[in-house]
Amino acid sequence: MLTIHQLTRPGLEPFDLDLDDGECVSLSGPSGAGKTILLRAVADLDPNQGTLALDGMDRETHPAPQWRRRVCYMAAEPGWWDETPAAHFPDRAAAMALLPALNLPPEILDGALAHLSTGERQRLALARMLVLAPRVLLLDEPTSGLDPEATARVEDLLKARQAQGAAILLVTHNREQATRMGRRHLFIENGKVRERAS
Fold first, then answer.
1. Is 158 helix (H, G, I), strand (E, B) or coil?
2. Residues 35, 147, 19, 30: what is their CA dihedral angle, to the nearest 10 degrees?
3. How far is CA 61 from CA 18, 155, 198, in A?
4. In the chain, what is the greatest distance between 2 CA atoms, to the nearest angstrom?
5. pLDDT score recorded for residue 17
6. What is the C-alpha separation between 74 and 36, in angstroms, rounded?
7. Which label site among 61, 89, 128, 170 has the fewest CB atoms less than 10 Å from its CB?
8. What are residue 54's DSSP bridge partners?
9. How far does Cα 73 stand from its chain's mean position?
10. What whole-number distance in Å separates Cα of residue 161 and Cα of residue 163?
11. Which H helix or E strand runs over 41?
12. Do the Cβ atoms of 128 and 73 come closer than 8 Å?
């Protein structure tokens, strides 16, 4: 379980959430409302205040890189630091095992990132996260550039990880996706989070 208590930073009012193992909570709100700020604060990527704990272990007891591997953030526009996808996967076999579920061919790992579509890069970024086997997935619009078939494949893969105990905090503008994926639904506006009826 991920426990968040009074998490705050500029642009985000104090926020509390208990996220259970295997649970998905959706987060929606207008552009600029603070969705990305919230996810980045949970991942401890930006300065923030508050108490966070994973399985009862306080965030402060985890070295920052370890916390970010266990509570892992995927940006709406993921960054890349090499010209080929393969360089981003230390465990090639684990990456190859994920590609079929995302409808990606094996040869994609050795191609040039610059030649891939937005949707292909987005699915590769999800694979890059999943090979780390994080306990909590912080997903910022993970299917925004995908067609319905690719979206369904991503959702199926995420549900499989939930079944294995992973928890998900999902930012999505798609209300139908929020309903399909989320057990609870949050809405953020002007940095203030409230629970929303499904």
1. helix
2. 20
3. 19, 32, 36
4. 46
5. 97
6. 10
7. 61
8. 2, 57
9. 5
10. 5
11. helix 35-42
12. no
What confidence score (pLDDT) does residue 145 get?
A: 84
- The full length of the chain comes to 198
Tell me, rounded to whole angstroms, the distance of Cα 29 from its chain centroid: 16
pLDDT at 102: 96
Distance of CA 155 to the CA centre of its chain: 12
Strand-pair partners of 13: none
Q: Which residue has the tokens 């996260």?
A: 129
Phi, psi of 102 (to 5 degrees): -100, 10
Q: What residues are paired with 196 via a beta bridge?
A: 185
Question: How do strand 192-196 and strand 184-189 relate by DSSP bridges?
Answer: antiparallel
- From start to end of the chain, where are the E strands? 2-9, 12-19, 24-28, 49-54, 57-58, 71-74, 136-140, 167-171, 184-189, 192-196
- Give CA–CA dist 95/85, Å, rounded: 10
DSSP state of 117: -
Over the chain (198 residues), the average pLDDT of each successive run of 10 is: 97 96 97 96 96 96 95 95 95 96 96 95 97 97 94 97 98 95 96 86
Distance, in Å, from the CA atom of 191 to the CA atom of 171, rounded to the nearest integer, reads 14
Strands 71-74 and 192-196 turn out to be unpaired
Looking at the DSSP bridge assignments, the partners of residue 8 are 49
Q: Which residues contact 179 (CB under 8 A, 6 or more apart)?
A: 185, 198
Kindly tell me the sign of the dihedral angle through the C-alpha atoms of 145, 146, 148, 154.
negative
